[in-house]
Amino acid sequence: IGLPSGKSLFQLQAERILCVQRLAAQASSEGSGSSVLIHCYIMTSRFTDDSTRIFFENHKYFGLEADQVTFFQQGTIPCISKDGRFIMETPFRVAKAPDGNGGVYSALKYSKLLEDMASRGIKYVDCYGVDNALVRVADPVFLGYFTDKGVAAAAKVVR
């Protein structure tokens, strides 16, 4: 998005994850040298999947381990005009578009990533829009607050 730093949002978010990993390792091991990995699941679309994977590979995953990043594709829905007609990609094929941020739930289920999360022992998921330049990825204060309150889900909003 043309940030003054010249960094991409992916880079900023990866740097934040690396920082939180270091803090978590220090807090959990008190200097025993053990590491903490925060697994990243990145939802793409059929239109962005290849370029996103290549971007991460070309930037060496911004310091993350390649095996701590999992890409998965969201679903698609038919494109419909304002007057309710299908938009055609070809004379015999309806155009489709990504199903949006809400598609994350069905995409995680379809890709069997809920089972993957369970097998990794993941208890909490921080879900955000990657294009949100203001997001604080893995915000320990926010995550700590909602886990302390014992709620199943929480949302951070700005007024």
Please outline the helices and strands:
Blueprint: H1 9-29, E1 40-44, H2 49-58, E2 69-73, E3 76-78, E4 88-90, E5 93-94, E6 96-98, H3 104-110, H4 113-119, H5 140-148
Parallel strand pairs: 1-2
Antiparallel strand pairs: 3-6, 4-5
Polypeptide structure, described:
The protein is α+β, with helices and mostly antiparallel strands and 159 residues long. It has one domain. Strands 1-2 form a two-stranded parallel ribbon. The longest helix has 21 residues. The mean pLDDT is 92.
Write a brief caption for the model.
With 159 residues, the protein is of the alpha+beta class.
Form type: globular
Q: What summary fits the major beta sheet?
A: 2 strands, parallel
The arrangement of helices and strands along the chain is HEHEEEEEHHH
Q: What is the domain tally? A: 1
Distance between the termini: 23 Å
Mean pLDDT over all positions: 92
**Low-confidence segments:** none
Count of DSSP H/I helices? 5
Catalytic activity: N-acetyl-alpha-D-glucosamine 1-phosphate + UTP + H(+) = UDP-N-acetyl-alpha-D-glucosamine + diphosphate
Pathway: Nucleotide-sugar biosynthesis; UDP-N-acetyl-alpha-D-glucosamine biosynthesis; UDP-N-acetyl-alpha-D-glucosamine from N-acetyl-alpha-D-glucosamine 1-phosphate: step 1/1
Organism: Salix viminalis (Common osier)
Keywords: Nucleotidyltransferase, Transferase
Which key features would you list for this structure?
159 residues, globular, two-stranded antiparallel ribbon, 6 strands, two-stranded parallel ribbon, 13% strand, alpha+beta
